Fold:
Amino acid sequence: MLNLSLKQLSAALAKREFSSVELTQYFLTRAEALNPTLNAFITLDPDASLALAKQADVQLASGQGQALTGIPVAHKDIFCTKGWLTTCGSKMLHNFVSPYDAHVIEQFNYAGAVIIGKTNMDEFAMGSSNETSYFGPVKNPWDVMAVPGGSSGGSAATVAARLAPVATGTDTGGSIRQPAALCGVTGLKPTYGICSRFGMIAFASSLDQAGPMARSAEDCAVLLNNMAGFDSRDATSLDRTKEDYTRDLDQPLAGLRIGLPKEYFSAGLSAEVGQAVEAALAEYRKLGAVTVEISLPKTELSVPVYYVLAPAEASSNLARFDGVRYGYRAPEYDGLTDMYEKTRAQGFGAEVKRRIMIGTYVLSHGYYDAYYLQAQKIRRIIANDFNDAFKQCDVIMGPTSPSVAFDLGAKSGDPVEMYLNDIYTIAVNLAGLPGMSIPCGFSGNGRPVGLQIVGNYFAEAKMLNVAHQYQLATDWHQRMPELAKGVA
Amino acid sequence: MKLTGADIKRIARLARVAVTEAETDTIRNEMSGIFQLIETMQAVDTRNITPMSHSQDMVQRLREDRITETNQRALFQSVAPAVEAGLYLVPKVIE
Structure:
């Protein structure tokens, strides 16, 4: 069961080679064995998971199984999950048992998938190392001294260590792709609007997007089939014809034009990452692709633009956490305003407060034009630059992250240094484009390298095809951390 | 740009986040560093560029004016810090 693809797991479940209860118990045993080391899950509830597995077995026995029926899925703790603790990695929601399901969770429930647990994450998805979680940092399965990336670090570590076959994540500035790269797994951030944001705790609403995390592009395609879809409860959900994201997986890559932004291969990129990415590009040329140099001239500015826009949206979204309707309330206070201020001071961690305050400042009287409006204008230029680039190529490739996973604590003291980690991923969110990361090698000290693939709007099936063909020719995505091998 | 201690207190007040005297300096230093990064935007000529608030060029969807939600007050209040008789309890604000 350990390394079977979703397709293989589904076929085995349909043939009753093993039951969903057996499969779920298998991964629960692994999760319980490794979670004390990795801290990848905030919540494991074996009884609840096994009850879902039993239901799935009934469905499977009646021949009513679908692609994901009976499959254990780990969900990022940002998705409201009815009856499950849903913390978003924050003290503010440390006691929040969600009274309803996010749309993404509903979709998995309809399909008969099993919730295996809720994964750890940076608090309110604000972080690139998982160190801002109120529940403690996640450790990278390839090296427990290293960060797993963030904010979907728990989901990435879960997939890498085989604590679940697949997981969900969300990506506002790189939060699926960067941890996927740092943990050696495959992750996809779809075009903005493909997956409903309903019940997905909001960070920056114009950037947040849910997506799949798995070992392979093929599994990501199967997951995306289930996650995508129109939902009237999300005002930005796109009403589009249903797509089969697996449809192009087997297409050959001959003639594929890969754009290489020169800004992604310049100073700031570590030599080891650069070499692994170059080797991946050589593999693509062998598969018949051609590479063309392109330019995304405002790449460097995407970081400051993001750190105006995302905090601005966050300061507004996080105003709802006031200690009145749900979550944490300060034990002692003197009047209503004092209750708000103490609740928020105690309930939010340092990084979240920092971003709320940046957002408050850039939106405040007298500063709006200089910061917020200027950032929105540069956002337009960044989106236009991508638009121009896609006239010359079918997909864009480059590194996902400038370096492999860094050591725990190495950057947590300097917010700006931490922010610069997302230099290659942020612009994709600003433009609303789909992006993914696939494993393409290792550093000398055994830490994974990720290759980023960016597509034009709605090009997910193409990107998954491009990733899948590479994964047929290479085995980076099948490598397994030593730590994961020692568990029954 | 240099932020002052008074700036930090004003922002904290607007954001409804209590900040102690001891924290003010650390926050001021960290935020000044971040604003140094943000200031690099000012060098870009953005005349005649329309601000982009969103990647989608869409208008608000309209729907029929009919009831779509059922009353779930008890369920939603079950996760509140303090409720009584179906009401959320907060400190007294009107004498």
Remarks:
- The radius of gyration of chain B is 23 Å.
- Chain B has three helices and two strands.
- The first strand of chain B starts at residue 83 and ends at 84.
